[in-house]
Design goal:
This protein is an alpha/beta fold and about 260 residues long. It has one domain (about 10-15, about 30-180, about 195-260): 3-Layer(aba) Sandwich (Protocatechuate 4,5-dioxygenase, Chain B), CATH 3.40.830.10. The chain is built from 10 helices and 10 strands. Strands 1, 2, 3, 4, 5, 6, 7, 8, 9 and 10 form a 10-stranded mixed β-sheet that branches. It is globular and about 45 Å long.
């Protein structure tokens, strides 16, 4: 997606990412975060507000939705590295193998990640803030609460086992293509369950209220992990929608950034 969702030129891309990171934000360790994934022109400031608060470990487990509906329901990409204009992000092979042991539903599958933008757009932020970052890329594409629970609880165990715990990032935009007042109200419902650290509630609310939050499965899995790890807080640190850029509030996509500690 270089040249589409973000700049393909390394120098311009790094400068752009730097401008999206608020100056003076205090960084601290976190269990994880929910970060948007549209083209940087729309939710870039929201993503920057999240990443500016994170003290990033070397390894990031990134959970993304499966917009293409290809491949396995829970797919770990086995590629040795993901290429970005700022350099490659290597697969954290040992950590990835341990996740495969802990979550039997997760399988190695590149097809689910082919042409999927939602994970890739996180990588320039990692490269700017943690140049030696390694990646565990997982796509979730089946609306199954037990699957989200299995993945989340496996990740919690993985976090507890690691000397330097990986950070858990869930890639998600919020409600899509409704008037701002409608989308905002729907996003409020979803974010209330996220702030309550309630994975079942998020899953059920998104489905019952027809909230088109594309990454609700990654967010649900993250909340299961947070629950198992005794998380204290899920803080919404930034919100906006596409209308802030286009000037048209009649049909917007919502964006929210959440830090889980």
């Amino acid at each position: 997606m270089a040249g589409q969702f973000y700049d393909a030129d390394p120098e311009r891309l790094e400068r752009h990412v730097q401008t999206l990171l608020p100056v003076g934000a205090a960084r601290s360790s976190a269990i994880g975060a929910i970060v948007p994934h549209a083209g940087y022109v729309y939710p870039g400031p929201v993503a920057g507000a999240v990443y500016a608060r994170l003290l990033l470990p070397r390894t990031a487990v990134i959970l993304c939705p499966n917009h293409t509906r290809r491949g396995a329901p829970a797919a770990l990409d086995p590629s040795a590295a993901w290429r970005t204009p700022l350099g490659d992000v290597a697969l954290a092979r040992r950590v990835a193998d341990r996740l495969l042991e802990l979550a039997s539903s997760v399988e190695e599958d590149s097809e689910a990640h082919r042409r999927e933008h939602s994970l890739e757009v996180q990588l320039p932020f990692l490269k700017v803030l943690r140049p030696d970052a390694e990646l565990v890329p997982v796509s979730l594409g089946e609306a199954s609460l037990p699957l989200c629970r299995e993945v989340g609880e496996a990740l919690a165990r993985l976090v507890r086992e690691e000397k330097e715990p990986p950070i858990l990032l869930a890639s998600s935009d919020m409600n899509h293509y409704e008037p701002r007042e409608v989308g905002r109200a729907k996003d409020d419902l979803a974010l209330a369950r996220i702030e309550a650290l309630d994975p079942e509630g998020l899953f059920q609310t998104v489905r019952a209220k027809s909230i088109t939050m594309c990454g609700f499965l990654p967010a649900t899995a993250l909340l299961f992990a947070a629950q198992a790890l005794g998380a204290a807080r899920a803080e919404v640190v930034s919100r906006r929608d596409s209308g802030d850029e286009t000037g048209d509030p009649s049909s917007v996509v919502g964006y929210a950034g959440v830090v889980v500690t």
